[in-house]
Design goal:
By secondary structure, this protein is mainly beta. It has 2 helices and 31 strands. A hairpin with a 4-residue loop joins strand 24 and strand 25. Helix 1 packs antiparallel against helix 2. The longest helix has about 35 residues. The chain is rod-shaped, with a radius of gyration of 37 Å. It starts with a helix and ends with a helix.
Length: about 400
């Protein structure tokens, strides 16, 4: 029996060495979780055997448990590197099956798919062309490789102060080419349906106390904006405190012609003068213009937020949501099946995955531009390696001792 006991000790120590060596080998593997061999003693007992007479027959490996504590997070500044700060696993698609990983090193394939180094696709919620995320189903995530389509300007928001002490223009009627026929002017740039730009020039003509007429032109040479043939957009009036009294709301509707570059022939626009005042101060714009619409945009970079939303930044300065990464959590992560390649498979012991967006209940947040290092403590593993080696040598000595005893009996 001593042989079998010692051999079981050798097998156990060898298994311990295997686990420790695997930990050491993966000390630099992103997202790796260290393992620990756990042992149980063995007894050959019968119902009638007295407890005080029981002798063990060795040891067995009861399980190899993994330590799912977090590794340290290191910044990489790569757009598609992402670390999980807390509970959860990334969902990946492997030939149609869902697998799980803590390794957040991802890349963009030629078709825009977000994959790991082995080509497994990252899963999450997709976003439509307008950046609206659809949380209805978890699908493989893609980064659009096409440019952002332009959007035509529809709204112009401007705020002015019109000096109450300014005199009325010397010349009437208004003419865009005669500076003496208007009090002040400003120019804004708008986008057409193809992303082309066109300047819209606005003119303010003081025609009475507390009353100003607004005109508009577009293009070169200046063409009056519609629908008025003169470009007259309407009249702005103020009370004795310098606040707008009409129109209410303070909006003027007009349109410009954009047919020259192939854009929409007529482009409707709305001018909002909210916040415009008439004080006894210098005439001028009092705030930055608020103009919608964009030119066509090329995707320049992307970033991942704590909630898993992937945001693209375009050359036109616009940003758009491209999708959202989801996380899966399990009742017993130790029940997951280790499939190698930094991925795990679901099992009956792990329970079913609870899928949610990062930052929700019991799901960690994400940190973009960073990765989670292996949680292997190399110093401790080297100490464990010495201990396992000592255990192996001690069990080898048990075999040697039994051989000596057997030889003594044979020589009697």
């Amino acid at each position: 029996m001593s042989y079998s006991t010692a051999l079981s000790g050798l097998a156990g120590a060898s298994k311990d060495l295997d686990v420790i060596s695997n930990n050491i080998a993966n000390a630099s593997t992103v997202g790796f979780k260290s393992g620990q061999a756990e042992f149980a003693d063995m007894y050959a007992s019968a119902m009638t055997t007295a407890v005080t007479n029981q002798v063990g027959i060795g040891v067995r490996v009861s399980t190899v448990a993994q330590n799912f504590t977090e590794g340290t997070i290191t910044s990489t500044d790569r757009d598609l590197d992402v670390a999980i700060n807390g509970n959860g696993f990334f969902e990946l698609s492997q030939n149609g099956a869902t697998v799980y990983s803590r390794n957040g090193q991802f890349f963009m394939a030629s078709n825009g798919a977000i994959t790991n180094a082995d080509g497994l696709q990252l899963m999450g919620y997709a976003a439509d062309a307008n950046g609206v995320i659809n949380p209805g189903s978890v699908v493989p995530l893609f980064i659009p490789t096409s440019d952002m389509a332009p959007s035509a300007t529809k709204n112009i928001g401007l705020s002015f102060n019109l000096n109450s002490q300014d005199p009325s223009p010397k010349t009437t009627p208004f003419s865009a080419t005669d500076p003496t026929s208007y009090t002040c002017t400003t120019t804004v740039t708008v986008y057409d349906s193809l992303g082309g730009t066109q300047d819209v020039k606005l003119y303010f003509v003081k025609n009475a106390v507390g009353s100003w007429i607004v005109y508009g032109t577009s293009g070169t040479p200046p063409t009056p904006v519609g629908p008025s043939a003169t470009g007259n957009l309407g009249t702005v009036t103020f009370d004795t405190s310098g606040n707008i009294t009409s129109p209410s709301p303070t909006n003027f509707a007009f349109n410009i012609s954009n047919g020259a570059d192939g854009g929409a022939t007529t482009q409707p626009l709305t001018l909002d003068l909210s916040g415009t005042t008439q004080f006894g101060e210098k005439t001028g714009v009092t705030g930055p213009p608020l103009i919608d619409g964009t030119a066509a945009g090329e995707l320049k970079r992307y970033s991942i937020g704590p909630d898993g939303v992937i945001t693209g930044t375009y050359s036109n300065g616009d940003t758009r949501s491209l999708g959202q990464i989801v996380l899966a959590n399990f009742t017993d992560p130790n029940g997951l099946t280790n499939l190698g390649g930094n991925i795990y498979g679901q099992s009956a012991a792990s329970g079913i995955p609870q899928v949610a967006v990062p930052g929700s209940t019991n799901h960690g947040q994400l940190q973009g531009g960073a990765v989670e290092n292996s949680n292997v403590d190399l110093t401790s593993e080297l100490v464990n390696l010495i201990t396992a080696q000592r255990d192996y040598q001690a069990n080898s000595q048990s075999v040697k001792t039994q051989q000596t005893v057997d030889q003594t009996l044979i020589n009697l």
